[in-house]
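COMPLEX REQUEST
Ligand: NAP
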Amino acid sequence: MSQRSLRTILITGASGSIGSALARAYAAPGVILVLHGRDEEKLNLVAGDCEARGAQVILGIFDITDTPQLQAWVQDIDYSNPIDLLIANQGMNINIGPKGEGEDWVQAERLLEVNLRATMALASAAIKPMRARGHGQIALISSLAGFFGLPLTPAYSASKAGVKAYGEALRGWLAPHGIQVTVVMPGYVESDMCDAMPGPKPFLWTAERAAAVIKRRLALNHARISFPFPLNIGTWFLAVLPPEISIKILGWMGYRA
Ligand SMILES: NC(=O)c1ccc[n+]([C@@H]2O[C@H](COP(=O)([O-])OP(=O)(O)OC[C@H]3O[C@@H](n4cnc5c(N)ncnc54)[C@H](OP(=O)(O)O)[C@@H]3O)[C@@H](O)[C@H]2O)c1
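STATUS: Structure written out below.
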């Protein structure tokens, strides 16, 4: 599918850094942007910018962990505006704390709901009508932390590894049905979530730069979009090396409490 045929694009986490940059990157006359988040004020600002670029905007403002509401909403949107591209981008992060005391379990469960469960719920709601139409595109935002678990963020790493595996499986399943699925694995990108994350942040990108790369490579239907070079190669190697060595390397790099 070429970018020209994109008409309706649904982006979650659109009030955040990467999501709002993606919304602005796709905003153009003839495009319907369906933007989801909880922060109404931020979403309205993003919507205003996108409308100024000629896009029509529909907002969805509710907690993404409400699965029945989420799936009914996706169904409703798709009924009136068939979704060409779904970008499941919402996310949150927690960490083990400055002294390595550990993650709070209630927060860890919440994180899994936001990062993994909601991503799967979104995709599963979009797949049915896309299959019936015989086309569609789904991008799932994972992270380079999905290649090898970072000691400072165990639950986050697990959620992003889950998103990666889910997306790869969907791609294999859905390609014969005309649905393109991409797993996006960003490195460090300027955002509130990134600011709050402990540890070194090498090769930090702006959200605008990340959005431009994601948009360009989605148009080429890449199975995986990972950046920046060389952090993507380095984290890929961590997954290939014996884990004892990878854990040592992460420790030397400062990824410890
Ligand atoms: N920034 C990085 O360095 C980095 C690196 C790798 C991967 N990522 C991934 O990129 C994605 C976007 O992150 P970001 O950096 O742009 O972070 P961000 O600016 O903090 O944005 C997070 C977004 O997720 C939404 N969200 C969180 N919990 C939600 C909930 N319960 N219900 C609905 N929406 C919820 C937020 O919406 P509200 O605030 O409106 O609730 C916000 O729009 C995430 O999946 C993140 O894991 C980021």
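REMARKS: The CA atoms of residues 33 and 57 lie 5 Å apart. The longest strand covers residues 179-186.
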